[in-house]
């Protein structure tokens, strides 16, 4: 599902489901679109067939939450985590600058993510206006419910956490991905995250001022061992189901 207002993205979601649930999930997608921070003037919902034997099953990343008193403190923590995962200072600064100013040549948000060389900081995705859109990712029904219950237990449940954790888990599962940096473009949601195999999925709050429409994702990759075409094909087309939930940690302040 993609909802937009005057061509600008306001909401998006995706599910991998059994066909018997199609009507229920389509109605859920429509409700989510209409509950966006801005009432969309265009809603597109599409459904594609996925062969069961093409689906890969993975475990979700461990979830950690760190709450800070200032945005600057959250940014410093993101920089420290990325640095500890081998992302160079120039790559971190380039991603931060682009997410803050707008990653397209026009200074606007993108639907997809940037792909950034973890050492040089160079953007290498083929379309710098569109980026790369991670698709075909979901949870089993049992895993989704378990995750929801665990997040609720620690007071951090939000549908955005479930969606973003799924994306981050798929992205980080690929060996070429070193880390991910994300800031939501929703003006009402000020929590961002850093994700990696070593650090897990680390939620950081707040990473921006409430009301800000700026946001996006940066995937830091080891370009020395990267076949860009197959990497993008995995992100956009490989069906992945999360059937095991990682550890959920108590938030730290």
Protein model, in words:
The model has no long low-confidence stretch (mean pLDDT 93). The longest helix has 15 residues, at 159-173. This protein is an alpha/beta fold and 253 residues long. The chain has a 6-stranded mixed beta sheet with strand order 5-10-9-8-11-6, with helices on both faces. A 3-stranded antiparallel beta sheet has the order 2-1-3, with helices on one face. The protein contains 6 helices and 12 strands. Strand 1 (2-5) and strand 2 (8-12) form a beta hairpin. It has 2 domains: 1-49; 53-244, no CATH class.
What is the topology?
Blueprint (H helix, E strand, L loop, with lengths): L1 E4 L2 E5 L9 H13 L7 E3 L11 E4 L3 E5 L3 H14 L4 H13 L12 E4 L19 E3 L1 H13 L5 H15 L3 E7 L8 E5 L3 E6 L10 E6 L6 H10 L2 E5 L9
């Amino acid at each position: 599902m993609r909802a937009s207002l005057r061509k600008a993205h306001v909401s998006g979601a995706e599910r991998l489901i059994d066909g018997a649930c199609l009507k229920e999930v389509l109605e859920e997608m429509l409700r989510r679109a209409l509950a966006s921070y801005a009432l969309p003037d265009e809603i597109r919902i599409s459904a594609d067939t996925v062969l069961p034997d093409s689906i890969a099953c993975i475990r979700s990343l461990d979830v950690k939450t760190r709450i800070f008193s200032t945005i600057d403190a959250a940014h410093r923590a993101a920089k420290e985590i990325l640095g500890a995962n081998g992302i160079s200072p120039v790559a971190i600064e380039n991603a931060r600058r682009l997410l803050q100013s707008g990653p397209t040549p026009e200074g606007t948000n993108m639907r997809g993510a940037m792909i950034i060389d973890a050492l040089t900081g160079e953007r290498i995705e083929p379309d710098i206006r569109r980026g790369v859109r991670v698709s075909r990712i979901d949870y089993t029904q049992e895993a989704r419910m378990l995750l929801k219950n665990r997040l609720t237990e620690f007071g951090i449940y939000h549908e955005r956490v479930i969606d973003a954790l799924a994306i981050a888990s798929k992205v980080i599962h690929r060996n070429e991905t070193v880390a991910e940096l994300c800031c939501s473009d929703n003006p009402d949601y000020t929590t961002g995250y850093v994700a990696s195999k070593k650090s897990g999925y680390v939620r950081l709050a707040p990473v921006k001022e409430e009301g800000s429409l700026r946001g996006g994702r940066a995937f830091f990759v080891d370009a020395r061992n990267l076949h860009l075409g197959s990497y993008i094909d995995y992100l956009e087309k490989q069906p992945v189901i999360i059937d095991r939930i990682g550890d959920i940690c108590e938030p730290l302040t």
